[in-house]
Design brief:
Blueprint (H helix, E strand, L loop, with lengths): L12 E3 L2 E3 L5 H17 L12 H8 L12 H10 L10 H25 L7 H7 L1 H11 L2 H8 L5 H13 L6 H11 L4 H10 L4 H13 L7 H12 L4 H13 L7 H13 L3 H13 L7 H13 L3 H13 L7 H13 L3 H13 L7 H13 L3 H12 L2
Antiparallel strand pairs: 1-2
Length: 402
């Protein structure tokens, strides 16, 4: 599902300390059309060799990752779908423009084919054959016949609860526990959906494991229902048994911290290992945390470092921060304060509160970077705004000496 969704939904921004979430719109539909047009030309789903349920893929796509054109695909056709999946929504064509361009291709190739058939009884065996006579041609022609009124509602996902569920889950996978409820409520507000609406929908749509998982989240954090950790644990377990990687990771977390069940660090470790094997960035990070702290296994700092590095490469903020901490303190690797600074800075700009705090410390102490109290104060404030008490305490100390 991630591969088909406008990557701008994963690009949250802040304005006056209020998180702004991008809402899916008609330009988002155009992005999805572009992906579908590429899929038609390739005969396979996009990024079929990558896990589609992981935040890492979403972050890579946001940063510009796209599938490559299939050899021998007409240049005009390639331009249509690459224009559609432009990272900047305003640079994408309209539905009318897409239809017009597809019409041009069909008209031009019909003329070319007619000319070639007059001089040769055999039709050239190239990509144009597939475009005109195969599945691609039929889909393009059907697409061309559709009215704009038919296209927009069919592609629109703004009110599609299935897509919303998947987007919320991806958002939560890269969010700290203490902020998960806030992020869900914030997402719903930005999409003009009440928690009552989506909760009712979840109750009536339990045939999808992600919907069951999100219902577990609602019970876990008390969204539209009283906190019920035992119910949350049961729901996480149900979807974990179905192979849902988010359920597997969350079940491990419940065993790790005794949420809705008794603490069982060995079981937590096993579940994190299972999620990590499935490529889930949060599972990989949690497994690294187990190795760092001897949870369900022996302490192995080198293994922890490797896992944090994997999680960081998948775009997980906690992974980026912890990797920076490893470089700063020499955990599982050699001390490299410059590398630590760069990782803290990267995670800080993406909103990781502990990275913001550690970056502020480096600016205050003049480590690696020139001492800059304005920058130090700025990042302490950013961290404190997210509830980091250490950052707030440091701000209070600085104010005493003003």
């Amino acid at each position: 599902m991630v591969a088909y969704v406008d990557p701008q939904v994963f690009n949250s921004k802040r304005d006056n300390n209020i998180k702004i979430v991008y809402s899916l719109n008609k330009k988002s539909d155009i992005y999805s059309i572009g992906i579908l047009l590429w899929e038609i030309s390739s005969g396979r789903p996009p990024f079929h060799n990558k896990p589609h349920d992981d935040v890492g893929l979403a972050m890579e796509i946001l940063q510009g990752l796209r599938e490559k054109p299939i050899p021998n695909t007409p240049v005009d056709y390639i331009k249509i779908y690459t224009d559609c999946w432009n990272n900047e929504p305003d640079n994408r064509p309209t539905v009318n423009q897409v239809i017009a361009k597809l019409n041009e291709i069909i008209s031009k190739e019909n003329v070319q084919l007619s000319s070639e058939q007059k001089s040769n009884d055999k039709v050239p065996k190239n990509i144009i054959d597939n475009l005109l006579y195969g599945e691609m041609s039929q889909i393009i022609k059907n697409f061309n016949k559709m009215s704009i009124e038919e296209i927009e509602p069919s592609m629109s996902s703004i009110n599609n609860f299935d897509i919303m569920v998947n987007e919320i889950i991806l958002l939560l996978d890269n969010t700290k526990i203490v902020r998960k409820k806030h992020e869900v409520i914030n997402y719903l507000n930005n999409h003009n959906i009440t928690s009552q609406e989506i909760y009712a929908w979840l109750l009536n749509n339990q045939n999808n494991s992600n919907s069951v998982f999100l219902l577990g989240i609602f019970n876990h954090f008390g969204i539209e229902v009283n906190v019920n950790e035992q119910k949350a644990f049961e729901l996480y377990q149900n979807v974990a048994n179905l192979g849902n990687v988010f359920g597997i990771t969350s079940s491990g977390y419940c065993y790790n911290y005794g949420i809705g069940t008794s603490v069982d660090n060995k079981k937590a470790f096993e579940l994190y290992q299972e999620a990590a094997n499935l490529g889930n960035s949060r599972g990989i990070y949690n497994l690294g945390y187990c190795y760092s702290n001897g949870i369900g296994t022996n302490i192995d700092n080198q293994k922890a470092f490797e896992l944090y590095q994997k999680a960081a490469n998948l775009g997980l903020l906690s992974g980026i921060y912890n990797l920076g901490y490893c470089y700063e303190k020499g955990i599982g690797t050699n001390i490299d304060k410059q590398k630590a600074f760069e990782l803290y800075q990267k995670a800080a700009y993406l909103g990781e509160s502990y990275a913001q705090y550690n970056l502020a410390l480096m600016y205050e102490n003049g480590e690696v970077i020139k001492k800059n109290m304005n920058q130090a104060t700025y990042w302490y404030e950013k961290s404190a705004e997210q509830g980091n008490q250490y950052a707030q305490d440091r701000l209070n100390e600085l104010k005493k000496h003003e």
